[in-house]
Design brief:
The chain contains eleven helices and eight strands. The longest helix has 19 residues. The protein is about 50% helix and about 15% strand.
Length: about 280
């Protein structure tokens, strides 16, 4: 018997919000198996009917949706009920409750969060800045950063930087080979901006580096992957962070999102202390 749940994610926009909500939901039910069917920019009844026809053919279908147009959302709900397919609105009650509390009607505008306002352009600028300042590039401009990430190789500096940039933070990241690899200007002014050190367990780092060498089909660099050398590298990195009083985050068992959330909290503390 197939116990795989067929999850239909239906959105009238990019579907990014729905994807994240389902990931959080899935984490609460680890013993279940899922196959995800994602449908973005769903804005007509015909589109919905085609999706429901497919869902009806499968066993264990479940529909989750974010559709802000009331008429279309109601159509999906009724059509799903007629086909006996479980269907849940992710935002419906939330929008209604907010509307009541704020005493204001919702716009019911698809992609409302993507309106081209000042915040949007600030985020685009942060992404461009972060990509230009990845892996120690344009290092002389680090003082223009909102956040600087410093860490040894393979501590998720780049993906964390990009995630932070999508939150609007101009982020530079600097690979830490040894203390001498840091810019002199940063060593002389270690609190010029919010600097965060990233580290991980040596054993985990050794595995990551070996996998990277294999994926690139490169000859293994013994010093780069040797566990004893990595232990010294991590220890020296921690000493550097301690010397300059930079907060340290161990990313060993953290997702990029979790690491970024901790960094944002550190940034808030930095700004409060700088006042």
């Amino acid at each position: 018997m197939d116990n795989t749940y067929q999850i239909y994610l239906i959105s009238d926009s990019t579907g990014e919000t729905l994807d994240r909500i389902f990931l959080a939901l899935k984490a609460q039910f680890l013993n279940a198996e899922y196959k995800v069917h994602s449908y973005s920019f769903t804005r007509t009844e015909n589109q919905i009917l085609k999706i429901l026809d497919d869902a009806k053919k499968n066993k264990n279908s479940i529909i989750l949706y974010t559709i802000v147009d009331n008429g279309l959302a109601k159509y999906l709900s009724n059509a799903s009920q007629n086909r006996e397919i479980p269907c849940f609105s992710v935002l419906g009650n939330l929008i209604l409750n907010f509307s009541k509390i704020l005493n204001q009607k919702a716009t019911h505008e698809p992609s409302g969060q993507h309106i081209l306002n000042e915040e949007y352009y600030d985020r685009i600028e942060a992404i461009q800045f972060t990509m230009n300042h990845d892996d120690g590039n344009l290092i002389n401009e680090f003082d223009k950063s909102d956040i600087i990430l410093v860490g040894v190789s393979r501590t998720s500096k780049t993906p964390t930087s990009i995630y932070l940039a999508n939150k609007g933070f101009k982020t530079s990241n600097i690979p830490l080979v040894n203390e001498n690899s840091l810019p002199e200007k940063l060593k002389k002014n270690p609190d010029i901006t919010c600097v965060v050190g990233l580290s991980t367990e040596p054993e985990r780092l050794a595995d990551l580096r070996k996998n990277r060498m294999n994926s690139l089909k490169e000859k293994e660099n013994i010093k780069y992957t040797n566990l004893d050398d990595i232990k010294n590298e991590v220890m020296n990195a921690k000493k550097t962070f301690q010397k300059y009083k930079w907060p340290l985050i161990d990313v060993t068992r953290k997702s990029v999102e979790e690491t970024a959330a901790s960094i944002i909290k550190i940034h808030e503390i930095y700004l409060n202390n700088a006042k």
